[in-house]
Amino acid sequence: MALADDTELIATYSRDWGRAEAFASKHGFQAAYDSVEELLADSRVDAVFIATPNNLHATHARMAAEAGKHVLTEKPMALTVDDGIDMVRTCKSNGVKLGVGFQLRCHPGHIEASRLVQQGVLGSIVLAQAQLGNGERGQLSRTIRTGLSEWWEHPEMIGGASTMIGAGVHAIDDMHFLLGQ
Question: What end-to-end distance do the CA atoms of the chain give, in Å?
Fold first, then answer.
C-alpha cells in the first residue's frame, strides 16, 4: 500500500500495543493503536485494511464504515452470508467503498493469463479447474511464523477448519478473474 500513488501509511492496530508500535516503526506508519475505536477516530485515516482474525472482519468493517472510512478486508469477507450482506449495506449507507483483497488479481502472471483468455488466444474456454498451493514444492509442514499468534489454528476464529475459506476462495476468485466474470 505504501507504494501506491497518493497514499500515506497513517496508523496500524494490534491488540498488543508493543506489536503495533514495532510494526508502525518498521513499516513507516505515523501512529500505532491498540484500540480499533481510537484508530477509527483518527481524522487522518481515510480507509482501513482489515487483516484481523476472520471472526472480526464483519465487526471491524461495520465499525470502520460507521466512522466514515473506506474498507478493504482480507478474505473471507465475513463468516456468514448475513454478515456479508450487512457489511455491504453498512458501507453503502455510510457512503464508503468496500472491497475484498484478492491479491492474485495483481500478480503479473494472472494478469497476463486473463489478457490471453479475454483476447481469445486460448480459444473458447469450456472448463476451468484450479489447484492452489503455498510454500515450497514438496513441503508438508506449515511454515512457522515466529512472533505471530496462531489464531488461524482456532476454528472458531477462522470460521471453521475449512480449506475453502483458507485457500479455496482464492482459486474461485482467480477463475472468475481469468474468465472475465
Answer: 26
